[in-house]
Amino acid sequence: MNPARDPVTTRDPITDSKPVIDSDPSAGPETDPVTGFAIPASWLHLSPDPEAREKIKSGRWAILSSGLLCRRGLTTGTTAAAACKAAVLSLKETVKSIEVTTPVGICVSLPVVADRGFCLAIKDGGDHKFDVTAGLEIAASAQPAGETALVAGKGIGKIVGRGLCDEVGRPAISPSARKQIMLAVSQALQETGLSGARIELTVPRGEELAGQTLNPRLGIVGGLSILGSTGFVEPWNDHFIEDRSLELKEAKRVVVTTGRVGLKMSRMLFPDHKAVLMGSQLDRLDFGQDQESILCGLPALILKWAWPGLLENTGYNTVAEMAENEPQHSNIIRALKMAKERLPRTRIVLLGRDGSILADVP
Question: What is the pTM assigned to this prediction?
Answer without folding.
Answer: 0.77
